[in-house]
Amino acid sequence: MTDSDKPGNSTDSGRILETLRLVKDDSGASNVLSFASLEGVAVRDGHAHVSLSASRDDAARVEPLRPRAEAEIAKLPGIDRATIVLTAHRPPGQAVPQSQGHRPFKLDAPANNPGNAQQAAPGGKALPQVRAIIAVASGKGGVGKSTTAVNLAAGLAKLGLRTGMLDADIYGPSLPRMLGHSAKPAIENGKIIPVEAWGMHAMSIGFLVDEQQAMIWRGPMVMGAIGQFLGDVAWPELDVLVIDMPPGTGDAQLTIAQKLSLRGAVIVSTPQDIALLDARRGLKMFERMNVPLLGLVENMSYFCCPNCNHRTELFGHGGAREEAEKSGVPFLGEIPLLADIRLSGDAGTPIILAAPESEAAQAYTKLARSVAKSLRMGPNA
Question: For 11-89, which CATH class?
Fold first, then answer.
C-alpha cells in the first residue's frame, strides 16, 4: 500500500490524508500511508472516523503509529477526537497462519467431531474478563431477534448479573434506539468506553454514526469493525455479554465464533415454516462450530386482542417448539406479538423494565431465568 491510493477529494479526506503522511515511524523514512490506504472518512460532531486498509503484515506496522495519528488528526480544525479503524486484508489465495488463531473451518467436518473444535475455536480466549458470552441469532431478519436480545440482556441485568450487550449487526444497528441512548461513547487511553443504559454496558456502531447513515461497507470492513468492538472497547468485568448477531449464517457469525469462546447461542424464530427453515440453518451453523445451543425461542407466537383478549395465531403456533424437539435442543418459551413490545422499543425502554408485570415482560423474564440457569448463574442456578 502506498500513499498514491487515495479516496475521494473531500475536504476532510484531503486534510486527514495529508496528516497521515506526516505521521512517520522511528526511522523517519516511512509514514502511515506507506503501509495503508485511506478507505473512508466520516466526521460527525467533531469526531473523525477513519478507515484504513492494509495487508496483515502492514497492519502490524501501522498499529504502533495509530495513537499518534489519531492525536494529530484530533488537532485539525473542526475535529476534537479521532478513531482509526484498521481493516486488514490478505492477498487472494494466501492461507491464514495458524499462529494467528484464525483456523480454517470445514463445512464438511462432522459437527460432533472433537477435532473440529480445534479448527473452529480461536487459539486464545478473547475478553477474558467476561465469564460467559452468548449469541442471540436468527437465520433471517424480521423475526424480532434484536428486541429479544435487548430484553434478554435487560432481564439478565435485572437478575443481578453484570451484563453487557454488543450489537454486531453493523448494517442494521438498532441498539441505540432500543436503549434510548444516542450520545457518542467516550474514548479513554485509546479505548472506547461502553455506553451505560438500564444497568447494562452496551456498544453498537449505531453509537458512532448518524442514525440515518447507510453502512455501505464491504465485508472486510465489517469484520474489522467487529474485531475492534472486541479488542478496542474497554469492556469491564462482566458475568455475561449478550451479542445481537446479524441475521444469516455468513462471515460475521464465523468471525465472532472464531474470536470468542461462546458459552452458547439462542436462536429466535417465528412459528411459520419459512422462518423455521432459516432457524434450522442457524442451529446447524452453531452445531458445526461446536457452540452449545442454549435453546430456541418462538417470537410473535400469538396475538391477544387488547380489547376482547381473543387469541389469534397470526403466524401459526408451536412450530419452534416442534423444531426444538426434533433438533434435541431446549425450547425457551413463547413471546407474544404485542403492540406494547414495539412501542417500548421505539421509546427506548425494554418492555421487561417499562411494564414488568405485563405478559410480554413475564415471557422475557422466563427466558432470562432459563438462560441464566443454563449458564449456572443467577438466583436459580
Answer: alpha beta
Q: State whether residue 139 is helix, strand or coil.
A: coil
Helix, strand, coil percentages in the chain from 3-state DSSP, rounded to 5: 35, 20, 40
What digits encode the pLDDT tens for the residues 314-373?
555 556 677 777 878 888 888 887 777 878 888 888 989 988 888 888 999 999 999 999
- Strand ranges across the sheet with 47-55: 37-44, 47-55, 81-89
Pick the closest to residue 106 from 92, 93, 119 (CA basis). 119
Distance (Å, rounded) from C-alpha 50 to C-alpha 86? 9
- DSSP string computed for 24-51: B-TTSS-BGGGT-EEEEEEEETTEEEEE
Residue 348's closest CA among 207, 155, 180, 147?
A: 180
Residues 6+ apart with CB under 8 A from 336: 300, 301, 302, 303, 304, 359, 360, 363
The one-letter amino acid code at 253 reads Q
Give binding residues for ATP as ranges.
Answer: 139-146
DSSP 8-state secondary structure symbol assigned to residue 316? B
Per-residue pLDDT band for 149 (boundaries 50, 70, 90) equals very high
Query: 54 CB contacts (<8 Å, ≥6 apart)?
Result: 1, 35, 36, 37, 61, 62, 86, 87, 88, 89
Smallest CA-to-CA distance from 335 within 349, 354, 352, 353 is with 352
List the chain domain ranges.
11-89, 118-374
Strand partners, 31: 24
**Which residue from 127, 123, 99 is spatially nearest to 230, judged by alpha carbons?**
127
All cell numbers assigned to 40: 473512508
Residues of the binding site = 139-146
Strand partners, 316: 314
pLDDT at 203: 92
Q: How many CB atoms lie within 10 A of CB 124?
A: 9
Give the span between the Cα atoms of 182 and 184, in whole angstroms: 6
Supply the CATH classification number for the domain 118-374: 3.40.50.300
